[in-house]
Target: Acetylornithine aminotransferase
Amino acid sequence: MTNMAVTRELFDQVMVPNYAPAEMIPVRGLGARVWDQQHREYVDFAGGIAVSCLGHCHPVLVGALKEQSEKLWHVSNVLTNEPALRLASKMVEATFAEKAYFCNSGAEANEAAFKLARRYALEHFGAEKTQIIAFNQGFHGRTFFTVTVGGQAAYSDGFGPKPADIDHVDYNDIAALKAIMSDKTCAVVMEPLQGEGGIISPELDYVKAVRELCDQHNALLIFDEVQTGVGRTGALYAYMNLGVTPDILTSAKSLGGGFPIGAMLTTSVIAASLKPGTHGSTYGGNPLACAVAEAAFDAVNTDAVLNGVKEREGWYREGLAAINAKYHCFAEVRGKGLLLGCVLNEEFKGRAKEFLNAAMAEQLMVLIAGANVVRFAPSLVISKEDITEGLARFERAVAKIVNG
Model:
């Protein structure tokens, strides 16, 4: 078995067909570069979908992993461990939160947040307060609860009866939210910048109005910062630049720099509703994940890296504007920091996947956010040289599509 030929065809033979991966199989990464089985080199503007915050095999993360791997990998949650307590302390110190809960992914962090919101409402306001309001085109994970809260029916339909009392309104539409909120609302769930839904930033007045409505109806405000958190927008967490503080915040993706981990942050008063036995995760808060996440969190939570994100955003916007001046295919470039989306104009509407495929053919890894947006979510410390080279490859891809 060790000499088995590992090819893309093997995926079709042995893997459940819920994904349709690219033909190339990456085998090695360093910084913002990735090499495939044929030793071809790619520039990575995708970051594992906003995960690889320090790029591939960053020495700080490799060092933390190696060191912890020789100490302690796993203990059950009947015990606690030093890396988990250190990471929780640092996250609490750096944010509004007073308590942290660890799990393995963004979906699990959101699952915990939604369960906590329901439990808190039940304990404090009674059994009628169960409504969760989220936003159309939102994305909160793939568990049945989180995919139902996410406002994309294509992901949640076809699995039988959905969890109840979940409603959706359009993002940035405060009147629509106001119309369906009441004292039966237990939580409003929002991304402080919609990711999968098309890289859509919130209006500042709208975020403040959402916070006010939650206060008015004794509803919790949950910020899903799975994609925007840990430096992605140029702040440690996106809420810090919005002038609004959530009651519960979820974090994952960049939190582990590539190692699976998720976290839910909240206040002591709200956290008290998750008493022993009410929720848990076998692997959540395991020492290996927390040691790597602590190293990633420390590395990102510096002025140099966070200010560097804003500087890199400028490099991207400048380069993309130059490409668009030649090829006229983008209506706008949306987003903040290093979560950016090139919105295709009317002429190229619905063809984002073609741009992704053309980029891959030029040995550049990008993402899409729906059918109309090409998305970039690279390493937060990607070099100017790698950005320049990646954008040159992107321009060649754009030219091929525009010129037919």
Summary: The two ends are 44 Å apart (CA to CA). The domain at 8-58+303-402 is CATH 3.90.1150.10 (Aspartate Aminotransferase, domain 1). The chain has two domains: 8-58+303-402, 71-300.
